[in-house]
Amino acid sequence: MNTHLSLGPGARALPELPSDLKAETPAQTRNAFVTLVTNDDFARGAKALINSLNLTGTHADRVVLHTAAVNPEPLERLRALGARLIETDLLPLSDAFNSAHARRALHGRAPFTKGEKPAFHTPLDNFIKLRLWQLDYDACVFLDADTVVLRSIDRLFRYPGFCAAPNVYQDLGDFHRLNSGVFVAQPCQDTYARMLDHLDQPGRFWKRTDQTFLQEFFADWHGLPISYNMLQYCWFNLPALWHWDHIKIIHYQYEKPWQNDHGKTKELEPLIKIWHAFERGEIPDLAGAPNPV
């Protein structure tokens, strides 16, 4: 139990971490921003994300769920930024499930046609996000490691139920689909157990892994404004939606800003510069940022 936290009269005691989550340090607050790092590439992304959160002045914990595949050096850089590191592993799923959702099998059956997934993308890793429901917090905001936060988003901890932004980056018809790069949830071991039961059923195939699953499991999900998960492809596909004064989070879906000369480097150059500023721990000049054409 997190007895170091002050529990006021009538406050709910926080849960203990299960044995399959190994935290280096105890929780310091009742709320946390959580990201997932499964390789050194995403550790680099998480560095920019943690820097961006730190620059907002948040007092919430910054949690990095990570696997043993991440090397000590990038983890040390995240630790030095104040991140709480929690080691975990893939979910305990059946061999049939793991085979169906391995990279080659999933991309062969449901190829990505709108953008280019980097070579380090491993679909099975995405399901580790569900371990957020095992964490020792009242409320969590999950942020993919390829996001950066432009201004404070602490208000999200007060949002009810499961909340996510729509997966809008191609056309307005995508408003009915959620994007799991940013979501708000309340940890609960019972919910986690029900998730595993629903996830790993004979013959089930989740085309977009955790994203497809979460949309079905939380069929009545609450929609966040797209400003809380502005997908980078809106820059050239839906420029009318791009308003610097309103954007809270930029999400670099598909091609990553730390990749050298990917296929959309020139088109996304202003956004890539913003990411590199956060990686250096600097505040980017949003007032001087250009608008999309």
Structure description:
It contains eight helices and eleven strands. The chain has one domain (22-279): Spore Coat Polysaccharide Biosynthesis Protein SpsA, Chain A (Alpha-Beta Complex), CATH 3.90.550. The chain is an alpha/beta fold. It is globular.
Name the descriptors.
single chain, 293 residues, alpha/beta, Spore Coat Polysaccharide Biosynthesis Protein SpsA, Chain A, 8-stranded mixed sheet, 8 helices, 16% strand
Class by alpha and beta content: alpha/beta
Number of helices: 8
- Our Rg estimate from Cα atoms comes to 18 Å
Distance between the termini: 53 Å
Number of domains: 1
The helix-strand sequence is: EEHEHEHHEEEEHHEEHEH
Largest sheet: 8 strands, mixed
Beta-strand segment tally:
11
CATH fold-level topology: Spore Coat Polysaccharide Biosynthesis Protein SpsA, Chain A
For CATH, the homologous superfamily is named as Spore Coat Polysaccharide Biosynthesis Protein SpsA, Chain A
Output the strand order for the largest sheet.
1-4-3-2-5-8-7-9
